[in-house]
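INFO  loader      accepted 1 record
INFO  loader      residues=487
INFO  predictor   begin
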Amino acid sequence: MEDFPIWLRANHWINAVLMIFIIRSGIQILFDHPKLYWNDDSTPGTEWLKFGKKIMPKNKIWTSHDEEEDINSIVALPGKKGNLGSGRRWHFLTASIWLINGMVYIVLLFATGIWKHIVPTSWSIIPASFQTLYSYVTFHLPPPETFTPFDPLQQLTYFAVIFIFAPLMILTGMAMSPAIAGRFPWYTKIFGGRQGARSIHFIVMILLVSFIPIHIILVLLAGFPSNIGAMTIGHDISVKTGLVLYTGIIGGLIVLNVWATWYTLKDQRRLQLAFDTYLEPLIRKVFGPLKSKQFYSKKDISQFFRINGYPPKDTEWIKASKNNFKNWKLKVSGLIDGDKYFSLSDLKKFPKQEQITKHNCIQGWSAIAEWGGVEISEFIKNLPIDPKKKFIVFYAYDKDENGKEYYGSLSIKEAQYPQSLLAYEMNWNTLPLEHGAPLRLRMESKLGFKMVKYIKEISFVEQLKNIHGGRGGYKEDVEHYSTEASI
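INFO  predictor   done
INFO  writer      dumping tokens
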């Protein structure tokens, strides 16, 4: 076996660690909405693949959170139900490092000429690969002269993994970003929509998961222990040394994954603070400037739109709802000259904005609807706002079982992006109770959890750190979501 340069060996093992973390955290994300579709309506019953045995009731209200499935920590990172925030954090951290590692690999691959071992230069590799495959399935090793240093089947497989599967994972991952989908709606259509991209992303993951054991088996069969030596210390080794190295590698990977799971589940807030130091500025820089330019047609509107959270039990809200919110008023605080109040009639006096857009839930489902209301930029342009105030906080009527108030926030800058709306209408009808009446936020370049429903107050503030848990929203405080919800 030809020895490999140190950069290639380092790159290989970094990639191995990252891929395991990406796959495990990806499984965590999947099980928050364990259904895959080829349509962006995500209508129950139209999924082509489903994990779990849950069947949603037809005679009572249920929410998308009721569809979550528990997942073992041996399989997923960090595992267990309700840890989507930490799973996404691991996924995006390792994926970003994996992308950098991959770009370094591609540059050095072509700079050093090693690409000739990976990239086929003749169509003859296809029949040669079938011949190699026949050798393996009939329990024979290919002739030694076919290894240069890889046999034809290995070379073709490595080429597919590096130049087809990996780019496809990146491209479909980007298509699931609400910021990209909002700014470039045509891009997601390449993959059949967000759900198509999600399904392809999953299929490629299965191919990569399948590749790993096949790769290990072929490496061991085709040249143990020399293959292990070449890819670790750079030269041929004895069988005993090979066994020690191989056992050490497997043991090290297991220990690393056990530690990552333990570290995450022990203190998810600590993980959130540590990872977001790197992730939030990166996501803000890459996706933050993207402004939604969605314009779907009436025929695209989904017949089914999931409910994401039960209506409030707040007595004030219940009382107001019984009167169709005729006496309800939106409180606006944090202004220079004191609080102001706006009824629904007042809000409807502002120029009305209508938009048909795609809702992208952090759990994975999507749906398209029409929303009508007043653009935030229009609403706030004449309000006396202190220039020191940088954020808008949206307070809701709903609370969790522990009495914690649901709220969310946006920077004043992003709140004034096009299609950022205080919506009182859905599909040209009064906003339904279960979808956030009397008023809800629409921010089409963000994930759905940022779009606070049942709004009772909006407040202009200088900073977010002193509000509740200090992370900018209920989901960020309690479920450890990232406030930069654009991917």
